[in-house]
Amino acid sequence: MSDLESCTEHVNALVAENADIIFNKKVTLAEERKWLSGELEKMEKKEGIPLVPEINGEFGGLCGVSKQKGKLSHIAKFGIAIKKKFRGTGIGTKVLLKAIEETKKQFPEVEIIELDVFATNEIAKRAYMKVGFKEVAVLPKGVKSNNKYVDRIVMYLELER
Ligand SMILES: CC(C)(COP(=O)(O)OP(=O)(O)OC[C@H]1O[C@@H](n2cnc3c(N)ncnc32)[C@H](O)[C@@H]1OP(=O)(O)O)[C@@H](O)C(=O)NCCC(=O)NCCS
Questions:
Q1: Whether residue 38 has its Cβ less than 6 Å from ligand 1
Q2: Whole-model pTM?
């Protein structure tokens, strides 16, 4: 399977399981190709770091770091989703630690990593806290899914160098 097919299948599996992520609609190969080329362009412009964990030679999920711009250039945002069959084995924690390490190495001007997590996503909150993130704000009703609201939590990590 090509990288593009693996990524498309991964996103669509997350949508099908109704994971606590922003996406709620399946994507086509063409849409995923466009998104992936945007991520690669960001990498070339030194504005992003895509991380793809490989487990026993198999695609294990996606993690992305996006450097913010202008007066927010000292901030990077994180996103992560591990393939369902590999979760709960410590892989998410390992990938987050690697993403933090690469952010420090590749983006010397970044001081803060910021992310959003759905209040219902206890596993993600636990994984983020394990690697040093703190909850700093709650956006009430920050998520609307199937006409139900969930709070959105803002977490942050100040990088030590
Ligand atoms: C969130 C995510 C990246 C965490 O990665 P993971 O590999 O599943 O997590 P880890 O195995 O590294 O475990 C992290 C912590 O969560 C706990 N945890 C993991 N799976 C759990 C489960 N099924 N039930 C309860 N706790 C669980 C672990 O115990 C660990 O904490 P501990 O070491 O203090 O016990 C992963 O579950 C995922 O991709 N989920 C779907 C997409 C998603 O929610 N992304 C985040 C959006 S903000």
A1: no
A2: 0.96
